[in-house]
Amino acid sequence: MTTITIKAPDIYDPEARKVVESTTDLMISISGDTYNHKDMIKVKGFNWDADGKEWYYIVSQEWFKSNAYSFLREIAKTMGVGPRGIIWLGEQSKAAMKNMDK
C-alpha cells in the first residue's frame, strides 16, 4: 500500500532545549509501492531517502496553503491513494490542512 504522509520536520529549539515541530516548513513523504510512478514523483520535485525508503519534498507553509490541495490530489489520483492513505502527523500539519486553499 502506498501512503502519503504530511508532517512538520523536527528541529531543535535551543531556548526550549528540545526538539519541536518546525513552524515554517512541512514535509510531504510518499512510501510504499512507488516504483511504477518514480518518474512522475521526481518531476514533482521529490527526493529519494534511501535510508527511510521513501520520497520526500519539503515545502514552506505558505506554498502548502496555496498549492497543496491540487498537488496532493493529483499525486493521490495518479498513484491510486485513497483518503485512508493520506496521513497527517503533528499539530502543524493538521493546522495547515485546515488552512489550505481548496
TrEMBL record:
Protein name, entry field: Uncharacterized protein
Organism: Faecalispora sporosphaeroides
